[in-house]
Amino acid sequence: MVSDNVQSVFDKARRDKSPVLAIVTGTKPDFYKQAPLVLEAAEEKLPVFVINTGQHFDEVLGFGIEEFNLQEYVGCNLQIRGDLMEKASELIIKFGYFGRHCRKQFGSESLLPIVHGDTLVAGMAPLAWVFGMGKKVGQNEAGLRSMSPEAIKRLNARKEPTKTGVQKFVSSQFDGRWFLAREEPFPEQIDTWICSAGTQFFFAPTQLNKDNLAREGYPENFVYVVGNSVVDAIHQKRKEKSRQSVFDLYPRLESGEWIRMDIHRRENLTRRRFLSIIGGLVELIKNTDEKVVLVMLNATAAALKEYDLETKLQKLADQHPDRFVITPLWKEYANVIEFLDSGHCWAEMTDSGSMQEELLYFPKVMSLTVRLNTDRPETIFYARSNVLVPPLSPAWIVSMVKEAHSKESALGMQLAHKKQIYGRPGQVSRNIIRIIKKEFENGDANFYPWLHQRLGLWKEKQVLGYM
């Protein structure tokens, strides 16, 4: 479904002899990480519209379009549906056909999609653009590659962790060696590899991400270390009030300090890991003083049903209403910011990639990442704002939480001295948009797939029929 505002965007581009940016959104993190780029492009008078895949079509998951006031910029809703394979197939076909429609209707040679991160959209949209249009895209949050600490190879999943063993494992994350471990998250790691192959302009959060891309052979002169646009989204939401306070929605959260917990990665829904995570949660509520708010995502609910744990968990919430709260996914991103800023959240136990980045900008909240690896390893060994909590057993979950919350623990001291490595709030998106403008103004905006173009041997317009 193509909206009328696309025509006006291309008309402006023709008048201004300007490129057109198509900012691509699909998942909930896309909305708030891509929104600052849309608003900055508009501020810079750069013709811009949003291609929304429409895969998050319910009121909660899709609310980011409204929350970040992107409605007027949406030029196309691809209305993607189905399972992983069906969505991937639809994305390639619909995204490619939309590009061809724009070329036929508006004749622009300078339409540049900007995808984000490691989502399915980031993987499939560049494929569609390269195969359907003969051009490459730009990628916001490029170069995400998962790593694990070497010490994880020495953990014994069949033995209960000792306090000394936990402390050594924590220390090894900050100061030990790491190795590439790109099997997970799935399919995000596959998506980010595919995306790189179809990308011309790489906007990397850190030097580590740029090094990843350089090691894989991508041209360093097209990789820009710009920070992470999530800091702009946080900055924006801190200046605005949520429509309804999180404490009006969930009044119990205003009492004491809580762990906010969100688990949804496919690998963590496998039997051993999921039973370890939920078993650890149960032990925390039954045998410690910790307070936990579990944010129920669709994948979490499905796994609880699959392993027949729904009733057990609800009974636990009924028995301990002041220390265990189950909520649906929070509709407003502003509610997340409000809670993390409130002083009522001491830790986020998560398997989200984005949350590891975001928590860096909340000095009083620890990031406890329930995974065997991370695609944001820099948040651990550079920023020291995060730690891996391996889901090997319930005892490992509980031991790591106790270690994090202990006043005598070195872990708490480590995480209390965070380094904000993702850029200055309000600046990241501005840098990205100005880099794009400069590339086009210099006449060097070369996003065709041929090597002679990249090497500057000569330039020519595409002439093949399918391009």
Describe the structure.
- With 467 residues, this protein is of the alpha/beta class.
- The chain has helices at residues 5-16, 28-43, 64-67, 84-106, 120-133, 163-175, 188-197, 207-215, 230-238, 246-249, 271-287, 298-306, 310-319, 333-341, 353-358, 378-381, 394-405, 410-415, 428-441, 451-454; strands at 20-25, 48-52, 74-77, 111-116, 137-140, 147-149, 178-180, 199-204, 223-225, 258-262, 291-296, 324-328, 345-350, 366-369, 386-388.
- The strands form three sheets. It has a seven-stranded parallel β-sheet with strand order 3-2-1-4-5-8-9, sandwiched between helices.
- Helix 2 (28-43) crosses helix 9 and helix 4 (84-106) crosses helix 5 (120-133).
- It is globular and about 70 Å long.
Task: Walk me through the topology.
Elements: H1 5-16, E1 20-25, H2 28-43, E2 48-52, H3 64-67, E3 74-77, H4 84-106, E4 111-116, H5 120-133, E5 137-140, E6 147-149, H6 163-175, E7 178-180, H7 188-197, E8 199-204, H8 207-215, E9 223-225, H9 230-238, H10 246-249, E10 258-262, H11 271-287, E11 291-296, H12 298-306, H13 310-319, E12 324-328, H14 333-341, E13 345-350, H15 353-358, E14 366-369, H16 378-381, E15 386-388, H17 394-405, H18 410-415, H19 428-441, H20 451-454
Parallel strand pairs: 1-2, 1-4, 2-3, 4-5, 5-8, 8-9, 10-11, 10-13, 11-12, 13-14, 14-15
Antiparallel strand pairs: 6-7
Kindly list the characteristics that best describe this protein:
single chain, 467 residues, alpha/beta, 7-stranded parallel β-sheet
Beta-strand residue fraction: 5-15%
Spans of at least 5 consecutive residues whose pLDDT stays below 50 are none
| Cα-atom radius of gyration | 23 Å
* β-strand number: 15
Class based on secondary structure composition and strand pairing: alpha/beta
Integer average pLDDT: 89
Quaternary state of this entry equals single chain
Largest sheet: spatial strand order: 3-2-1-4-5-8-9
Number of helices: 20
The rough form would be described as: globular
Q: Cα distance, first to last residue?
A: 23 Å
Task: Give the helix level as a range of percent.
Answer: 40-55%
Sheet of most strands: 7 strands, parallel
